[in-house]
Amino acid sequence: MPKSTTACPAKTCAKPDAPQEAIASGLLASAGVNAAWTAQARRCTQCGCVYSVEDEALTVRGYYNNPIFPEGWRPIYV
Ligand SMILES: [Zn+2]
Questions:
Q1: Cα angle value 75/66/58 (rounded, 5°)
Q2: Mean per-residue pLDDT for 58-73?
Q3: Which domain holds residue 47?
Q4: Across 1-78, where does the E strand assignment appear?
Q5: Are strands 20-22 and 41-44 parallel, antiparallel or unpaired?
Q6: Per residue in 2-45, pLDDT tens?
Q7: CA 51 to ligand 1 center in whole angstroms
Q8: How close is the Cα of 70 to the center of ligand 1, in Å?
Q9: What is the rounded average pLDDT of the residues 51-66?
Q10: Ligand 1 centroid from CA 30, angstroms
């Protein structure tokens, strides 16, 4: 598989090659996130980074249960 879809895109991730998992759009919706990108969202099991996958492009959207901020969804604005 191409590296772009298997590695965490967060610049601060301690282990970018940690397993990346799909995160359900329903879970994000329950956290108040209803954007279209949630249908293609993935999450890094290491740092909690949530990002969208569109074609080859990974866009960091925020963090869900980050080890430092474990209280759920934290959007980031870039
Ligand atoms: Zn990560």
A1: 55
A2: 90
A3: 3-75
A4: 20-22, 41-44, 49-54, 57-64, 73-75
A5: antiparallel
A6: 444 579 999 999 999 999 999 999 999 999 999 999 999 999 99
A7: 10
A8: 14
A9: 92
A10: 22
Total domains in the fold of the chain = 1
- In three-state secondary structure terms, 27 is helix
Distance (Å) from CA 21 to ligand 1 centroid: 11
Report the predicted TM-score, pTM, of the whole model to 2 decimal places.
0.86
- 9 alpha carbon to ligand 1 midpoint, in Å? 7
- The single-letter DSSP state of residue 18 is S
Report how far ligand 1's centroid is from the alpha carbon of 27 (Å): 19
Q: How far is the CA of 46 from the centre of ligand 1 (A)?
A: 5
Q: How far is the centre of ligand 1, averaged over its atoms, from the C-alpha of 34 (Å)?
A: 22
Sequence-distant (≥ 6) Cβ neighbours of residue 68 within 8 angstroms: none
Query: How many angstroms separate the CA atoms of 75 and 5, rounded?
Result: 21
